[in-house]
Structures are given as structure tokens and as C-alpha cells.
Amino acid sequence: MIITNKQLAQVSLAQAATGYTESTKMNRFYGQATCLLTVAGAGTVTITQQLSLTGEPGTWYDPVDEDGTAAGEMANAVTAGTTWRIWSIRLAPWIRFKCVEANAGTATVDINFAFQESLE
């Protein structure tokens, strides 16, 4: 097993806007992940994980549990600053992060995450 560190491209958000990180192939993911989130600006941001079987445009979805409750939230109402988050990645071959600004102001989001990968 190895630890993989991935720095995603910065997401810039206008007030009340939604933005997305680039996709990451997770076919060898194993266990939980840690994430260093840095938000700058006056905005308030909620970050959720989206999943895809192919990573192609138009194939992304927000995971829900058996009751239809959203299951991909990683961080809710994050304001300026840096924080570590530990979360369980929902299983899919591809993931990306959806960043939504809550109509409070502009923001930029930097996401650096680390996860275990199986070598098998």
C-alpha cells in the first residue's frame, strides 16, 4: 500500500456560484482520506464529492444513501482559513469535488488530499 498526495487546481467562485475540481481516478483507493482545505475571500463554501463511472462530462452524480439523503458532503459552510478534514470517499472509479458558494461573497478553494492506494 502507498499514500498518494494530490493537489487539485484552485477553484474560483463568484458569489452564489458553483465550481468543480478536475476529476481524479480512484480505482485503487483503499480506506479513508485526509484533506487540507484552504478557503480565501469573503465567501462561505460547501464542498461535496461527486462520483462517476467514466469521468466523462455529463456522467457525474451526487451520492445519496438508501433514504435519498445526500451522502457526499465533505465540508459545510467553510469560511476563510485552512482546515484538515478526514472523510470516507464514496466508492466510484472517478471522483471530483463540487464547491458551492452560499451567496455570501467571492471565494477561492484549494484542495490537497491524501489517500491510500492498493498496489494489487
Describe this structure in words.
By secondary structure, the chain is mainly β. It is built from no helices and ten strands. The strands form two sheets. Strands 1, 2, 5, 8 and 10 form a five-stranded antiparallel beta sheet that branches. Strands 3, 4, 6, 7 and 9 form a five-stranded antiparallel beta sheet that branches. It is globular.
Protein traits:
5-stranded antiparallel sheet; mainly beta; 56% strand; 0% helix; 120 residues; single chain; 10 strands
Rg: 14 Å
Q: Which percent band covers the strand fraction?
A: over 45%
Give the strand tally. 10
Provide a count of the helices: 0
> Helix fraction?
under 10%
**Largest sheet features:** 5 strands, antiparallel
Order of helices and strands: EEEEEEEEEE
The span between the termini is 8 Å
Global mean pLDDT: 90
| Classification by helices and strands | mainly beta
Categorize the overall geometry.
Answer: globular
Uncertain runs with pLDDT below 50, 5 residues or more? Answer: none
Could you give a quick summary of the protein structure above?
This protein is mainly beta and 120 residues long.
Topology of helices and strands:
Elements: E1 2-7, E2 11-13, E3 18-20, E4 24-25, E5 29-41, E6 45-52, E7 73-78, E8 81-87, E9 94-101, E10 107-117
Antiparallel strand pairs: 1-10, 2-10, 3-9, 4-9, 5-8, 5-10, 6-7, 6-9
